[in-house]
Amino acid sequence: WLDLSVGRADLVEVPAEQLRQAREQHLTVAVSPPVELLALAVADGGFLANPNLRAAIALAVDRGALSNVIFQKQGEIAASLLPSALTGYSFLFSADRDLNKARELRGGLTPPALTLSTDGGAAMQLAAQRIALNLREAGFNVQVADSGRPQHTDLVLLRLTLGSNQPRAGLESLLRAVGVATPVQESGPAGLYKVEREFLETHTLIPLLYLPRAYAASGRVRDLRLSPDGAPLLAGVSLEDAP
What rounded mean pLDDT belongs to the chain? Predict the structure, then answer.
């Protein structure tokens, strides 16, 4: 932002958690629809091979706190793989926190220490710390890795980019990103909902938030547009005083 303000840069990325600040500073910002899915990947082996425990983890996370505190109310709370604008059925997946139900599903089991890791900057680390706190309230012993991803990890906080604004292709891109290579055969809303529901019922990936991508541009930049995945389409951009 400093480089932008003194003319040493014409285009800089604005993280979702800083988008409000960028607007308050009257930067010219191009913002995509929600295209980045913040999700918690849960191992399905060892202690977490028990599906009730994975379901308890899904119920324990406070999406509202993540959205309001960490990401400054940008984007939308999500419990589905695809954003609501693409399908119209995301409301069928509950995003409510239910701590009592989470404790009930845990069934009095004493979990071993679980490791939560994330790749990313300060906001992702803060989000991981918040999730760990949520899970401790549900009776899970969760520690956040200091940095990077340790050799063994039980939970991973991911940021997945929606690869297409077409529902079927977008769903396939998200599933591929988490290692599910099976093509999506369905195309209509009912069929896509069925695919999502069956996958999400395993609780190996827990959608949390959908975030936009944003870029701040200098006054020289003309015709800046963003692609379906939120990246800037530089081929169509011009600079006002370029030769």
Answer: 91
